[in-house]
């Protein structure tokens, strides 16, 4: 029987998908399982995409993206972090493609990769697709917040490790690396020539004020730091599939070759919409952060008022990742919630074994809908 290669065959199927399939066709399910803002892309960004199509802007672009977007992104990243030239930026087909590209750029089969978990499954599977070996360091849960044992992480980053994949603010926990820890991690990785893959997808969805700490604030010329990012969350553009990556200038030409062989370029009219989003989208981000902050506070208070549930206040991203007493099979628990209470949440085990016993709730939603969800959860808690 013809088969795919072993590292693809051994990939886990998405447990969130499995659950969604179980709820498919049921109009009465209130879904909070996918990480997606609840509002469509703002009209002025959509208009820019439509204008580009109307103008016949429908051809291939440079592999690395149109100069206007690379330059707009360079100004944006320089404003948020440290000065970055457009030559260090490549436009990608969203964040997941950015992660695959930088992984293809830097990982060989057999390479050792370290990740802080629980973690968005795609980030765990991408290095495995390429034949890398992934080791994990778990965050610790307390009602006061998720924490990282930095010494344990640094110990795991043994000499010979190829890369650290770090997503902060983290999906699913909302844990956010501190500036102090970042400096210690960077110093260690510098000493041992370990690459840092910083997934900064949620850097603007940060509730402690301003932009979340990024390795781009500390990285100097010659550092092995790449940062991947996306338009999906900050500018409510999940379906457009637009993202970018910041790499050391010495990698840009090789990255361009990889883009040629993966997607050749991001769609040009999507890139045109991206220019408008980056240049005029700050009010969108400010409004979204305030909406999500209110949603987070409401949801976490409601969860903690529910007997048998413990939730920490996430510092960033758009998820509550909470513990449910007595649940040791979160997929089965979530299936019961779908079938018995019409509530769609994501099982913690989808984010690796360290997520077992937890459930993820995307709070990118209005308060009324969240309140309805909480009612359903309270009813569903008894479905054992
Ligand atoms: C941690 C993290 N990184 C990257 C992404 C990429 O999203 P996209 O491919 O839509 O840009 C996501 C999406 O959920 C995410 O949670």
Ranges where pLDDT stays below 50 over 5 or more residues in a row are none
How many DSSP-defined strands?
Answer: 13
How are the strands of the biggest sheet laid out side by side?
A: 2-8-7-6-5-3-4
Determine the CATH superfamily of the largest domain: Type I PLP-dependent aspartate aminotransferase-like (Major domain)
Write a brief structural summary.
With 384 residues, this protein is an alpha/beta fold. The protein contains 13 helices and 13 strands.
Structure description:
The protein is α/β, with parallel strands linked by helices. It has two domains: 6-41 and 283-383, Aspartate Aminotransferase, domain 1 (Alpha-Beta Complex), CATH 3.90.1150.10; 56-280, Aspartate Aminotransferase, domain 2, CATH 3.40.640.10. The chain is 40% helix and 14% strand. The chain contains 13 helices and 13 strands. It has helices at residues 6-9, 15-23, 43-54, 67-80, 94-106, 121-129, 150-156, 179-191, 252-262, 268-280, 282-304, 330-341, 367-380; strands at 30-31, 89-92, 112-117, 133-138, 163-167, 195-199, 225-230, 243-246, 309-310, 319-324, 343-344, 346-347, 358-362. The strands form three sheets. It has a seven-stranded mixed sheet with strand order 2-8-7-6-5-3-4, with helices on both faces. Helix 3 runs antiparallel to helix 10, helix 5 (94-106) packs parallel to helix 6 (121-129) and helix 5 packs across helix 9. The protein is globular. The relative contact order is 0.18.
